[in-house]
Amino acid sequence: MDSEMMSPLAVEGLCKNYPAFRLEDVSFRLTPGTITGFIGRNGAGKTTTINSILSFVRPDAGKISFFGMDYPEHDREIKEKIGFVSAGMTYYTRKKLKAITDVTRTFYPEWDDAAYRKWLDAFGLDEGKTPAELSNGMKIKYALALALSHGAELLILDEPTSGLDPVSREELVEVFLRLKDEGKTVFFSTHITSDLEKCADRILFLQQGRLKADEELETFREAWRIAECGKEIPEALKQASRGCCRIREGYTVLVRKEDAAAFETREASLEEIMIHLEKEAEEA
Amino acid sequence: MKLLMKEWKLCMHPMGYIMLLCSALILVPGYPYGVSCFYMGLAIYFICLTARENHDAGFTLTLPVSRRDAVRARILFCALLEVIDLALIGVFVLIKYLTGGPENPAGLDAGLALIGEAMILFALFNLIFFPLYYRDINKPGKAFMFASAAVFGWIILEIAATYTIDFVQNVLDHADGKNIGDKALFTLGGLALFLAGTAKSIQSSAKHFEETDLSL
After folding, report:
1. What pLDDT, in 10s, does the model give residues B59-104?
2. Which domain holds residue B196?
3. B131 assigned to some structural domain
4. Is residue B48 part of a domain?
5. CA B20 to chain centre
6. With a cut of 70, which residues of chain B have pLDDT below it?
7. CB–CB of B14/A95 below 8 Å?
8. How near does any CA of chain A get to the CA of B213, in Å?
9. Which of B55, B64, B66 sits opposite A89 (nearest CB)?
């Protein structure tokens, strides 16, 4: 019960209705000191989930707690322990980083200036620059430096690697792994699944507003296999198919591991699983 | 206090400083002086517009503060600018009084009652602009349009009153020391409206903002 209560983030039955979209009964619980990847295609509801978690939008139903404290009732205490970074949100583009930091630090009793300097150095950030002068990757790193300097134990990152070149993405993945080593919990949404293959412990897969999977990364991957075939998909494979994609030589077909024995299959990557399941959902 | 500093350091638009100087319009002969208050409203609109462009709400709401705190800070910061504007209006009224000049045909003369009138205009602006703005912080233009229309409507009524209502024409619309008690009472009434209007604005705006889904 203790470990349950101290989950950095626990979400139960989260629902949010919009005229053209519905987030339905999303429930999950993060484990301290792990990296959880939140995947799904654009429009699956990842940002809506994060916005609901952070009370940017008001959920229609559900319970959210951080570190055993209900949100938003304990929003001040909670916000001192979490950091939020969104690739889509760049704050005060024409203000110098120093000005933004000087304001930010006043709000946090636990602000650690030495840690801030350490992260600035580690990320190669110049406080004399403005966010407008930073690359997308550096903007994310600055937001991370702010979050880490006020002692955030949970980092919620919305599409932090979108729009970054492969080298910058790799650097960020290394940062996430370093944070994990320091005992921080990282929760990040992305549709770039290759980043998660390198660092995530757990995967949450959201599809059309519903949580389709909440599993360890390896368990999730091992549950699926990919069969490749020519331009005609055999009937037996069609029956076992959980989604198929056209490729140059023919088709790739996603099958459950327990159905795979009859076919020649190989390991499925996270991206392949997500794409094939989305294809299946589209066809359904 | 921390949020007020945040407003000043991160959200203040340079137009805010420039518009404060518009209180000097009181030195212009034959000018509807209430319009100088409209310019302060324009500065507040620029502040809210800049806040939107800089994702200020997203930044503020990740700080350990509530939505209500954020609303209160923004409105109090803007009210503080209005108070500075009032002080500057007072200074220019005094300069005008000391230097003399013709009576103003376009509304109240530059006297004590004008300061009361300015407070009424700010109360009106705050009461309309902020509650509308906090219904949807991505549309400050809509809130500004309605608040400006109300302010200009009131200025037109004020100008008309200086020709049609005896009390305004013969008591308030004079910059001299006569009827000082009535003018002081009018100005105190303006102060009461300014304080009550701003407090009500904070209350309504916070309620709207707490209920709103933010599109950040």
Report:
1. 999 999 999 999 999 999 999 999 999 999 999 999 988 887 778 8
2. 2-210
3. yes
4. yes
5. 11
6. 216
7. no
8. 4
9. B55
